[in-house]
Amino acid sequence: xxxxxxxxxxxxxxxxxxxxxxxxxxxxxxxxxxxxxxxxxxxxxxxxxxxxxxxxxxxxxxxxxxxxxxxxxxxxxxxxxxxxxxxxxxxxxxxxxxxxxxxxxxxxxxxxxxxxxxxxxxxxxxxxxxxxxxxxxxxxxxxxxxxxxxxxxxxxxxxxxxxxxxxxxxxxxxxxxxxxxxxxxxxxxxxxxxxxxxxxxxxxxxxxxxxxxxxxxxxxxxxxxxxxxxxxxxxxxxxxxxxxxxxxxxxxxxxxxxxxxxxxxxxxxxxxxxxxxxxxxxxxxxxxxxxxxxxxxxxxxxxxxxxxxxxxxxxxxxxxxxxxxxxxxxxxxxxxxxxxxxxxxxxxxxxxxxxxxxxxxxxxxxxxxxxxxxxxxxxxxxxxxxxxxxxxxxxxxxxxxxxxxxxxxxxxxxxxxxxxxxxxxxxxxxxxxxxxxxxxxxxxxxxxxxxxxxxxxxxxxxxxxxxxxxxxxxxxxxxxxxxxxxxxxxxxxxxxxxxxxxxxxxxxxxxxxxxx
Amino acid sequence: xxxxxxxxxxxxxxxxxxxxxxxxxxxxxxxxxxxxxxxxxxxxxxxxxxxxxxxxxxxxxxxxxxxxxxxxxxxxxxxxxxxxxxxxxxxxxxxxxxxxxxxxxxxxxxxxxxxxxxxxxxxxxxxxxxxxxxxxxxxxxxxxxxxxxxxxxxxxxxxxxxxxxxxxxxxxxxxxxxxxxxxxxxxxxxxxxxxxxxxxxxxxxxxxxxxxxxxxxxxxxxxxxxxxxxxxxxxxxxxxxxxxxxxxxxxxxxxxxxxxxxxxxxxxxxxxxxxxxxxxxxxxxxxxxxxxxxxxxxxxxxxxxxxxxxxxxxxxxxxxxxxxxxxxxxxxxxxxxxxxxxxxxxxxxxxxxxxxxxxxxxxxxxxxxxxxxxxxxxxxxxxxxxxxxxxxxxxxxxxxxxxxxxxxxxxxxxxxxxxxxxxxxxxxxxxxxxxxxxxxxxxxxxxxxxxxxxxxxxxxxxxxxxxxxxxxxxxxxxxxxxxx
Lengths: 516, 484
Prior knowledge:
Largest interface: A-B, 35 and 32 residues
Structural class of chain B: mainly alpha
Number of helices of chain A: 24
Oligomer: heterodimer
Number of helices of chain B: 20
Order of helices and strands of chain A: HHEEHHHHHHHHHHHHHHHHHHHHHH
Strand content of chain A: under 5%
Radius of gyration of chain B: 21 Å
Strand order of the largest sheet of chain A: 1-2
Shape of chain A: globular
């Protein structure tokens, strides 16, 4: 069956599902404990998954398949990319539960149930090997997230929850029609088979657009990003963490898993669209982030900018770009999650997210200021943190395709440094003018326990990214080989006049680098 | 003609009509006191008929069906399947009724008897292969339904619902009859197979108008736009168990009847009916979604929801393939579970004195006062909206799959995009139940039967429902194949 001889992925889906149902009937404290225990157990299972993952082995591992539903199957299996995203999920979930430990006081059982159910769906999305199973799990995430925002959210939560729900639903429904068409055309709903099925180029155009509608909203790309700031601002802290940390990655995962390998020609055809939207996003949302007064909104806009780097890297059609994009996804999952937690920490003390209400926190909350600085730097992409690795690789990959787009994208990085440092200055530096801010205690042990693991992971990814790149290398290679036939010619090569050397693989790239 | 075979094939109807007449006599002699006994006997009769319908559906020796009474009536998988669904809905409507009527006056023995007669009519409808059987079945069902709608005589709204239903229903029957007479005039027969053989090629104006009028009459019965206007009024005014019945059993019967008429009688005229069905389907989806947004009464809202769902169902018919019909039948199973479940939830909306509440605002904060009922309500709403992982999604999935397979991509895309509009009001109900502060109007009832039924229906439309696909898919496929 697989290297462990038991259906570990099904277990990772079944366990939180069972715990979610039990949580509904438990009291507040018992529900918290059960949720924490379950998510920690899942993290342990995730480590087992990673430890037994055979790097360089078969593309799909831990494969399970039961023909359970007639038209589609309970088919699970992961490659390196899915595994890293599952790791991200199981790593962030205990932290989310911990972040809600004290701030959520009402309807705790239902809250924990919603989060555990969310975890089932997130792991399922990354592990699904049947396109319809993927769709069901992908869409099902709307229900718990709608409830999380709507019940435990802020003042304007109703509007935010409606917007989140309807926006993402509208994005996804057309994708279902495209999937139905694909399955009828290819005669199977098995994702690994579909990955190697060549759809007619003219059909690809429409299919790509249908998938794009869904993933662009989920990602989110400019101009369909407007649900994100609202959802982030209104969601409870843990909701924001999960939203930024994992849910946004589903969009990127969708591009990786569906749009690129299944429709390479169409992806190339629409490269201008992706680049244009991403360029606008990088610059525009960064500028918008600069003028925000609400911390969560600022981080939300920064997420849109970072996700634009992901799309740019993915559509570079080369190894550096795609690997970089995946690392940005992982890094952003950790960093933005941590930043939302940092906001949550001071929000729990002062119950406002307005930046001007703070200032001088480095004086009375030194530990907090230190960790906040680390995550700020990681968000900017300082070398030594996870942000640098991903952004550098994405931009290197992108540069091979289009140097002008790279120029604009790099501007976004500079602007990113601008708004993040500006935020940090206003929150942590300066005089302690407000008495209530002066009275805020530093991080509690619980908060330390939440932030420290993320800090460690961020540094690890920054200093030794190989641990995270090794599992995805083979799969990115497969993907690049698959889409290579449609890869756009880089603009830098055109002027070189190297008609003999086709710009493929590492050799050509190395030569290109030297000639500069 | 073998009368023995004819009688065997019509056994489900014979059992029901004979028991209906006996129970009517019993009701006349026994009076109001006998109501409970008569209900139990009616349920027993329905179970008896279900047993025969199940036998016809599953026993391989009945696989090819058979005609009864000189081609007026046909026993086949399609009819038997629809009947099972109808009987199930009728049984549930009988089980939930006594308590409701007791709380609102008296439970009269006429209720179960009328349900039985309506069910006989519906059985005739789904088995009709002749315009006259069709009409008689339809009228038997409708006449019982008119009376059922106004069965609480001293309630103005109930009487009004009955009257409205009667007047508009008669108009629709008139149109249907006029259409039938035109079709008969041009085809020379009322038999579906003869009509199919005679009306070939391009239709002249006469039979064309006939086909359109027949479809208009049927559209009224399935409450599809533009013949839907009676639905919200009748659903709102009729007593809730009756509304639950209207929204389930007759809907199944009318849709199955429409399918049979279109596929059997007008099967050769695809281009004629397909554009009508496509329009009616999309109009029903959009109007059902848009008009529901402003509703403040939960029963009216569910009425629009049923119009909306009929639109989705018709997408399967528009595809016109066996796959499409099988998708519709599967959708109907899920639809019946969702609808009955939501209406029983509505019945459970009562204040401390047992007075029924129907306004959406009375649901506010239900999740804090009655978490179980609230969760079930939310499950039905998300399921009606077709949000996975709830089972309501599967029905939509199948009809859209059929539409895509039939090459009707624009229909599928517009239909599914319009489903997002519908999602708005479903999540609005969830919002009222879960996000708003408790209104505290709805009291605990502790009705075991009702709660059990709600739980059963909620379980059926929960993700566990997907496990039934391998069991039900072949059955719906066989039933649909019987028409082709």
